[in-house]
Design goal:
270 residues; alpha+beta; 13% strand
């Protein structure tokens, strides 16, 4: 009888620990998204399937078995956005889309200067920095600019009354690529009612891609930044610069620590 029990080696233990860790990380990630509700629903269906088999409810068992079979394929479709985001995070580069640290810092400096000026004048704005994932599918309706990033050009675009001031401005590398773009709004049910359309658009584009969005409130002049579906509010110029540098130019280890800090600040913001 003892011979029937398989021998467990050190590699088996390591294998089990790795799988357990991966499952844990997936659940932690999904707990921050709407997908967790779908996953709970599927687990409930699985539980009912086991109960139906136990009590020999053949009709119910047949229905649940077919639902589970279909569900395996449906999972890929249902969780497609989450899968894409996970793969995007894994494939992130050290400097995002910037060739050098100097190029990134130059763009950051202009964004910070423009944000400070628009905040003081209470000019609403939404500036999105494209990274590894191209935003072409989201910004087809935008107007092509293709101009060098500068404080003056950003303020001109968002100045009240200009044709492009209501949409988002997209920065690609060191250029203002498009302006007047309309972005997908976040459907996160946990966002407070006080979060307006401009901020929901910032959160929405960072939920779907690895972009970074800077938002200036037209009502209060407050500056916020969104990344990976999170939002930090009420940033002064030094803090805004620190956050942008932390997300765009820091090395991998420093960046991971900074993203953890970003998530904590997002929870404190609400």
């Amino acid at each position: 009888m003892l011979e029937a029990i398989p021998k467990i080696t050190l590699w088996d233990v390591i294998d089990i620990l790795i799988v357990a860790f991966l499952i844990y990380r997936i659940f932690v990630y999904l707990s921050e998204t709407r997908a967790i509700q779908i996953l709970i629903g599927l687990l409930v269906l699985l539980m009912f399937s086991v109960i139906a088999k136990f009590f020999h409810f053949y009709t119910l068992s047949f229905i649940f078995n077919n639902l589970i079979t279909i569900g395996i394929f449906a999972l890929i479709v249902i969780f497609q956005p989450e899968i894409r985001r996970i793969l995007a995070r894994i494939g992130e580069k050290q400097f995002g889309i910037f060739t050098t640290e100097e190029e990134a810092e130059k763009v950051i400096e202009e964004i910070v200067r423009a944000s400070a000026s628009m905040s003081e004048d209470r000019i609403g704005a939404l500036i999105v920095v494209e990274r590894d994932i191209k935003l072409d599918n989201y910004i087809e309706a935008g107007t092509l600019i293709n101009g060098v990033v500068s404080k003056e050009l950003l303020i001109t675009i968002f100045w009240p009354g200009t044709p492009l001031h209501d949409g988002a401005t997209i920065i690609r590398k060191d250029k203002i690529y498009k302006a007047g773009a309309f972005l997908p709004l976040s459907l996160n049910p946990h966002l407070p009612q006080t979060v307006g359309t401009r901020h929901r658009a910032a959160i929405g584009i960072t939920e779907e891609t690895d972009a970074i969005a800077v938002v200036i409130s037209e009502e209060t002049g407050a500056v916020s930044i969104s990344y990976a579906g999170k939002l930090i509010k009420n940033l002064d110029p030094p803090k805004l610069k620190k956050v942008l540098k932390g997300l765009l130019v820091k090395k991998a280890k420093e960046k991971k620590n900074f993203v953890d800090y970003f998530k904590r600040r997002n929870e404190e913001s609400f």
